[in-house]
Amino acid sequence: MCGIVGILGEDNAPQIALESLMSIQHRGQDSCGILCYNNNVTLKKDVGLVSEVFSHWNVQDGRLAIGHVRYPTIGTDPSRDAQPFYVNYPYGLGLCHNGNIVNYCELREELLEKRRRLQSKCDGELLLNVFAEELIGNDVFQAAENVMNRVLGSYSAVSVIADKKGTLTIFRDPFGIRPLVYGSGKSWVMVASESVTLDKFRMMSEDVTPGEVIIVNGDDIQRKQLRTERHAHCMFEWVYFSRVDSVLEGSSVYKTRLNLGKNLRLDHDVDVVIPVPDTARPAALGFAEEHGLPYREGLIKNRYAGRSFIMGTQKKREEAVSKLNVIKSEIKGKKIALIDDSIVRGTTSRKIVSMIRNAGAKEVHLLSSCPRIVFPCFYGIDFPSKKELIASRGEIHTIGADSVTYQTLDGLQKAIGLQDLCMACLNGDYPVECCTAQFEMMREKEREESIWQEC
Ligand code: SF4
């Protein structure tokens, strides 16, 4: 999972790209990059946060730029896998995307057989190469349609064609699994993973529809709906991933999280509601309001610690939990309703429950604003193989809480207010076919390799 931005039409497009990436840093902390076009292509990308990678950047002039922040679910070399990617043939072509390609192995083999050079294990490079191939002898719409026919999975993509004026091409997979919003002003257009980026520049945003392509060249903007499937927007964007002030598909993330809290059942007698910071705060507030209970901050997170879930390794995630501290006065002697956004592996929940017990809580009742996650995700969120998911293993009791309550599927859908969602990790109904065994094997192998590199 990642975040992308694209700007065309402003003289300071690279500077806008830089500021835009800052606004979606929460979508990826592993690496980042910006590709600019101003008759020449300039590409800067590296491992690290946007503020680190671009701290001494000599900001370019230019009317066209795309940018990326990365959270890895595929690949083991963060430096080689950083996006955007660029190729010279058949045109100068740059691309970055947010998502996960599920027929990665087949496409990779196909491209290697055709002697396409792939220098990373990142599926963004694969998507770029398929797009480049399809541009030979086809116009951009036809090329994008062919990409949608060949590439399976989730991809919200933005691309630069280095022709005379520079063309910005935007497309979203036919199921619209990952978000993508678009806005146009008087003389410029912008695309980003989340509406918060467009808000920052006071630009009205609309969702790029699933299977849609937008081509912008100078003042000319063309849009085409190439494929229509059932929309399957990832529910986890509302539950955890997106920024709380974003609006996705017309549904506010903040309101959804409040509603998720309201829809949670209260099964036990509790004294106080405490959120696991930061994502679960609105859900805890909604839950407290709904049940007439006091809301307190009992866990404080060092604001300089990154988001724990998107950290690439278990070791880093555990270190992030150690950056939490308790406010004993709000916990000691009380029965606590502890609200978290979700329970995935259970490792962080176990540590937090133990911290609260050590602070003197009488009882700890854990409530998850997300339903039970029991199936892996193949579309860009690092929900690992079934055997790593605590609910799938039936080991929720090992968390050590007095009780664990989950959101219901119905409660989730009502909170988001949309029917056309991907909920495959909850109910096993995958919108895009995927050879799951092969995918899980590939991911496990990569994980072993990255653990090996760390040792
Ligand atoms: S499987 Fe789950 S996490 Fe993955 S895209 Fe679907 S809803 Fe989102």
Explain the layout of strands and helices.
Layout: E1 2-8, H1 13-23, E2 31-37, E3 41-47, H2 50-53, E4 64-70, E5 85-87, E6 93-101, H3 104-113, H4 123-135, H5 140-150, E7 153-161, E8 167-172, E9 181-184, E10 189-192, H6 195-200, E11 206-207, E12 212-217, E13 220-225, E14 233-234, H7 236-241, E15 247-248, E16 251-252, H8 253-262, E17 272-275, H9 281-291, E18 299-301, H10 314-321, E19 324-326, E20 335-340, H11 347-358, E21 363-368, H12 390-393, E22 403-406, H13 409-416, E23 421-422, H14 424-427, H15 436-454
Parallel strand pairs: 14-23, 17-20, 20-21, 21-22
Antiparallel strand pairs: 1-4, 1-10, 2-3, 2-4, 5-6, 6-7, 7-8, 8-12, 9-10, 9-11, 12-13, 15-16, 18-19
Helix pairs in contact: 3-4, 4-5, 8-9, 8-13
CATH architecture of the largest domain: 4-Layer Sandwich
Distance between the termini: 25 Å
Any idea what the CATH superfamily of the largest domain is called? Answer: Aminohydrolase, N-terminal nucleophile (Ntn) domain
Strand content: 15-25%
| Mean pLDDT over the residues | 91
Given helix and strand content, the structural type is alpha+beta
Overall outline: elongated
Report the sheet with the most strands, covering strand number, pairing sense and barrel closure. 7 strands, antiparallel
Arrangement of strands in the largest sheet: 3-2-4-1-10-9-11
Computed over alpha carbons, the radius of gyration is: 22 Å
* β-strand number: 23
- Return the CATH class of the largest domain: Alpha Beta
Number of domains: 2
pLDDT < 50 stretches: 449-455
Task: Enumerate how many helices there are, as a single number.
Answer: 15
Helical content band: 25-40%
CATH structural fold name of the largest domain: Glutamine Phosphoribosylpyrophosphate, subunit 1, domain 1
Bound compounds: iron/sulfur cluster
